[in-house]
Fold:
Amino acid sequence: MPFPWLIRLFTLFTIPSFLCLFGYPFASIELGSGHFPGDYSPPSPPPPSLPPLPPPSPCEGDLKGFGSLDTLCVINSSLDLVADVYVYGNGSLEIGSGVKISCPFAGCSIYVNLSGRFVLGAKAVIVAGSVWVEAGNASLLERSVINVSAFGGEPPGESSGTPEGVYGAGGGYGGRGASCLVRDEEFGNGVWGGDAYGWSELDKPWSYGSKGGTTTKEKDFGGGGGGRIKINVTEWIDVRGTLLADGGDGGFMGGGGSGGSIFIKAHKMTGYTWISASGGDGYAGGSGGRVAIDVFSRRDDQKFFVHGGKSFGCPKNSGAAGTFYDAVPRRLVVCNHNMTTETDTLLLEFPNQPLWTNIYIENHGKAVLPLLWSRVQVQGQLSLSCGAVLTFGLARYPSSVFELMAEELLMSNSKIKAIALLPLSSEHTTLFKRVYGALRMSVKMHLMLNSEIHIHGVNDAINDAVVATSLLEVSNLLVLKDSSTIQSSGNLGVHGQGYLNLSGPGNLIEAERIVLSLYYSVNVGVGSELRSLLRPSSSDDAMTQLCESRSCPLELVHPPEDCTVNSTLAFTLQICRVEEFNVEGTVKGSVVHFHLVRSVVVLPSGAISATGLGCSQGIGQGKLLSSGLGGGGGYGGKGGAGYYDNDFVGGGIAYGNVDLPCELGSGSGNDSLPGSTKGGGIVAMGSMEHPLPNLLVEGSLAANGESFEDALSKQGGLAPSIGPGGGSGGTILLFVKALALGNFSIISSIGGIGSPNGGGGGGGGRIHFHWSDIRAGNGYQPIADVNGTVLVSGGLSGGRGHMGQEGTITGKTCPEGLYGIFCEECPVGTYKNVSGSDRNLCSICPAYALPHRAVYNHVPGGATEANCPYKCISDRYHMPECYTTIEELVYTFGGPWLFGFFLLDILIILALVLSVARMRFVAIEESPELHPQCSTQMDKSLPFLRSLDEELNIEKERKWRNQVHRLYFLGPNTFRKPWQLPHSPPDQVKDLVYGLSLLLYCSRSRCSIGEVELKLWSSVVFVVDLAEMCSFMVLSVLPILALVPQGSSCYEDAFNRFVDEVNGVASFHWWEGSIYVILSPVAYPLAWSWLQWRRRKKLQQLQEFVHSEYDHSCLRSCRCRALYEGLKFSCTGYNASILLQIGATSDLMLAYLDFYLGEDEKRSDDPCLHHRYPVSLAFGGDGTYMAPYFFHNDYILTRLLEEVSVSSTVWYRFVAGLNAQLRLVRQGQTFAAIISWLETHGNPTLSAYGVQVDLAGFHLTGTGFSHFGLVMRASETVSIKVVGESKCRCSKSKQQLSRSIRSANGAGHFKDPERPPLQMKSSVVILNSKNIDEIKDEKFTYRVMALFIHHVIPTGRQDLVGLGLCILLLGDFSLVLLTLTQLYTSSIVDFLLVLFILPLGIILPFPAGINALFCQNAKKSVGLARIHAIWNIISLVNVVTTLVCGYVHYESLPRSKSSEFNSWNFRRQDSSLGLGRERVVVVALFIDSVQNSSSTVY
Structure:
């Protein structure tokens, strides 16, 4: 029996009981009780204070310890208490390890009040109904336990925690106890056991849990309620044990008891502990208790459990969760530890000051706010996760207001419900339905993951439900993900300032009316849906008026600015004051309106639809027969007539305003007929005052009529044998500034399909584009980019009925220059000077005002006048007549003919001036008396060079006497075949070459040292002084050389090294040939000039190389060194010198090496020509046009012939005649004409002097001879005459000379001419009429032209020919410039083609010809004339190319303009101007042709 102090203790800490609302006590859940399960009773006033506590127990007395409570009391033995214990002192209390203090009675209390420390040893146990510890510090060591489970005393008076009846319900405390009794047919909600209490002491719980119910009246099987634990320390607490205040188990026969109370207050808390105030298990589980902590610093991880107990009778309905409150962060947790339940944890009034920070409802926790007006307001976060449910609502009241305010609302696999229950009486039973509660939610961020918010009733079939408006205000971020839904059976306003995202499939926002406003960006993702649907049973006055009205609702054209939910307006879904609205899913509503939206984007997967959401009847309702056959609904077009089995019924009429449609589509059938269809709804974007700035549609925008099959599938009825028609299309009204339709986009308002048994098709709807700002003129900007489809077709009939009539597509009236629905610019070439949208208003521009080479020009806003603007087809033509620069020049002078005469006069005048200047210039240059000889000038002006001049003459005279032999280089000096010296010298100079080898060694070795070491072939070493070098060479070395066998390396190596070095210098680099290969096909004259330049540079390099490498300072005087050139080898002090000199012909294709042997100053025994026989003389050139064959003559050869009495005049005539014949021989031709000329003219003349000349080929190879030339030898019939003082000062006698001549002619140097030369391997082969035919003969293709070029030579008319050529050159240059200008102005491709295929080919003929005309040297004139001819050929090719390009360009021009214009006028102008161009090109071709032939021969 409890003592009086215990009663006072209970009274002090008992929370006030709840009183019944309006005086009604809590009723039993027995059937027919007349009360309502789910009613909640408010708490009673607080009880009076507890009585004083009893006297404390001493340490060594009742506690059986040792020590003192004022210092230290240690209890080492277990205690079994039978009554309450009060421990008080200023010291500490230690309960030893393994000690058990037990008071196993309901409500037994242990109260400890110490100033020191409280220690519960390891494995120590305290068992009681109530444990209260007040101390400075507290320690609960490992595995220690304070257990007050199932020993709770009586709950507060007047509380309803213990269930009544015999249904085995669970006890309630932190939440409601579970009940397995459910009557769905009688109650709209499940029932529960014991009710919750103790909300007012949520932060400091101190109440016992309630006992569970029983299933029999005979015995109470209910589990006991949980006890109480309170630990209040001033500093720290270390909890490593367990605190238990669970409810007792009731088994299968009784309900579980509810959990008790645990409260801990300290400054610091540590340790890993298990703290539980869970409900007990039973037939129906008890609810969880209440746990609260007030700890400033909490470490480690403490586990808290307040879940309900298991229900064996209904496993899915465990007891409700209790509450866990953390006072420092002001956090409330409702967690049911993943135990499913249908029982609620009650959340009552929330504190205002200070606000709670966070509320967590998790792990199948189910919380409810059962108040008439309730507010959930937290300072931080409201989180629902893992099956959590938060329910708003109050029974028996038709209207409730709920508010939810937080910084963040996070929902994961959870629900929020806003419901209320309203009783409806009947004769036999009482029914309940859910009434709309007004949910006013205001958060900054709302995230939903697979979660739901429901604001709707249960029994939607009752039509008199009270409808309230709910507002969801999410200012920053609202995200729905993974099939999250927000649903309301009433009106719903969703407002915010940030971002709204329905991120994926299954996400839904649905209500009867929705206003979504104030967001910056709204995204309806793929598979998501934003839907406003009126309930089929609801009677909406606004919709009814809209279906019956023939006038446009004012709010569609001039909507209000406030963006609030208003049920009196026609809107069912309004998007208001949103910056960006992106649709990838579905937006659906009866009347969808976008107001004050900046941008709407409908992506390919997105759809904005009002299909089948219009009127079920309406003004244009299809007519209906009693048999059920109906015609289609009408609106934009008439509905199709129904026809079945000879029954005919008409469709609905057309109605509405074409220019500003704003009506719903009409249906067919009636409410009682299965498959009755509805018309299309309304989709309106923008308004008169605030048009939509930008609309991009890549998906669909539809307001189609409902088809019979779709209506039947929604209604779920059986298909009738005869059915109604389809609904008509609705309205799409677009107040927009800019519209873009993608390639696969669709804007449609088509009629629905009628029933398959003859129902008529619905008529098409109406689509109107009301452009807000159509800018005309220069400020025009396209307002629509339409690549998709716009449809207003009528619906089909499923049977033999008629198709619905097509609807209307209209647009705002377009200003001048624009036409069509989308106010596009009139096509180029048309103009429009009136307002209207009809295409026929764009008239064709008059063709006479359009010049040739002009096209109509696009102008912004279209042409508004008859004189349509035009532009030339290219910038090269000039306005206003689109003439080229040349044509403007021509027409400035009066036309082509006058300009031609004017140009001809100018050319004649300039040609006269040029011809006179040429005659005077050339005459002056060629006048012999005006140019004195160089020697005269030198004598008068340069007397100090007179001695050098004498030395030069002496050297020139001596050189021909000392010349021994001329060795020719092989090869034509091209990049592929450069000059090459043969390694085997001819027999004439073989002995000289052997001596030269050592001299070369001598020359290279004496430049830097005083002595030189010379090693002979016999390995004898001679050391000589430089002064004695030459005497040694002449007296000792040269005789030895005669004994050296041929082929010995002693004399061959040095000469071979010399040849290799020279050949290396003569070779070209690879890049030189590459440039030649590139230039050859592009501009051959440039390639030829490049080749000649490189040949000249190569000759200079050879001469410089020989001079620098082998000509050392071995001459006796500076004067002598100044006279000598080329390669010289000499020895000082003796009369012996060896000289080598490199020369070349004028065409730089033939090079030779001359050998000179004789004394330095004078030689008395000069050899004559007979000693040199046979003499080989090679031809220069290669037989091409630029380098014809020619015979090279020089002073040495002329002087040698003079020694045998051949005068220079005879020899010059021979050379001139031979060159005249060689000029006619081309590469690939035979030399038959040359052989014949030698036999008939050459040899008969020279034989008189004992000289015979034969044609010969040199150095036969596999591809032919390397060179052609002459072989000069003594005539077999010559008689040597020595008259007086012979010029040939030979020491031999006449007989000896004859023998030497015969020996020379038969020395074996030449092969038998009777043998074919191509089968012989010899260096020289004489060619005659018998073997010349074996040389390949290639016919000259252009023989006629060749004869004309080579034989038509003007004689005696040079001045007249010069005047003609001046006229031709100036004419060619003028026509070239005109042609280039014309080509550039007509076609840049033609200009580049002519200019770059043969670069500069049409410019350089003029300067080349002028050069040839003014050349004073006859030889130079011939060479320049050839180059001039080449350039003229290029000019001819260019002119032909110009002619071809001009013809192609002329043929590519269109022969006629569009049939809309006057094509005759254009053809006339093309013909005249084209003829003018052809005249210019033909004249240029003629002038170039004449110039090519005449300038060449000139």
